[in-house]
Amino acid sequence: MLFEGQRGTPAHFLASTTNGTSGNATFGMTSGTNGCSTNGALTYGGKSWLAMNGMMDELSKDMAMGQGEALTTYAVVLGVAPEDREHFAAVTHEHFSQIFSKADATAEDVHTNTVNVLKNDPTLAKYATQA
């Protein structure tokens, strides 16, 4: 669940080693011999990482304040580089009402809205394509 939504060989490699699989999977990913494509987004049975880990409440509080552990964790999961995380926090704080657009927003709503906000920011747009 830690790597949900991430793309690319590094994310798939880390997910496979974190999940305790053997080296066969990593060899197959890098060589393409086992039919595993590292271009697809990682998912966990259709359940959002945020929802699975009960982070929605904490994330909403942190985003409303513009700082906090859950917000930093979300930035890491989205692949936001350390040098852009302060800007990520400021932008998501500024667009809080757009990201958490309704009281019963789902994790999927929040993620989709976050990606849309990132797409419109010159510094953060590059992370919207990774999410």
From TrEMBL:
<dbReference type="InterPro" id="IPR021383">
    <property type="entry name" value="DUF3015"/>
</dbReference>
<protein>
    <recommendedName>
        <fullName>DUF3015 domain-containing protein</fullName>
    </recommendedName>
</protein>
<dbReference type="Pfam" id="PF11220">
    <property type="entry name" value="DUF3015"/>
</dbReference>
